[in-house]
Amino acid sequence: MCKQELIDEINAALPESPFVRNGGSLLLMVGLPGSGKSSIVENLYKLVPFVLISTDGIRAQIRRRPQYTASEMTLVYQLSYQLIERRLRSGQRVVFDASNYLAARRDHVAKLAESCGAPVAVCLVQAAQET
Questions:
Q1: Which residues are CB-contacts of 130 (< 8 A; sequence separation ≥ 6)?
Q2: pTM, two decimal places
Q3: Cα(86)–Cα(127) distance, rounded to whole angstroms?
Q4: What is the DSSP string of the chain?
Q5: How many CB atoms lie within 10 A of CB 116?
Q6: CATH class of domain segment(s) 22-124
């Protein structure tokens, strides 16, 4: 299956979100795995409708048994970026749930959102150290 077919298939499986504004809006989650990003996203969804683009969700859709290799991660992020852009261009509120620990990835998503005219908010999640 080519990349465009994967994007179309994953996009079709995502729920629609109401139109919020031209260019949409983006909430970029940032934090280490296990820090609680997804829990925050789940609670936020109870308050505000949005489309969730999750690297974990995309990885699960493209691989039955994820390998967590560099090439797989690259593909997952490429698909994520294209899905984010598609939904922002349709004026939807998007939450991107991924570790986003690399500044280059955060910058790429911010530039993508800017090209769509979408405001970007960043939520940095840090787990408290257990004593």
A1: none
A2: 0.91
A3: 32
A4: --HHHHHHHHHHHSPP--B-STT-EEEEEE--TTSSHHHHHHHHHTTS--EEEEHHHHHHHH-SS----HHHHHHHHHHHHHHHHHHHHTTBEEEEES---SHHHHHHHHHHHHHHT--EEEEE--PPPP-
A5: 21
A6: alpha beta
pLDDT tens digits for 93-111? 999 999 999 999 999 999 9
Task: Assess contact for 96 and 2: CB atoms under 8 A.
Answer: no
Question: Residue ranges per domain, the chain?
Answer: 22-124
Angle between helices 70-89 and 55-62 (to 10 degrees): 110
Helical axes 3-13 vs 70-89, angle rounded to 10°: 60
CA 11 to chain centre: 12
Q: What is the pLDDT of residues 42-82, one digit of tens each?
A: 999 999 999 999 999 999 998 888 788 999 999 999 999 99
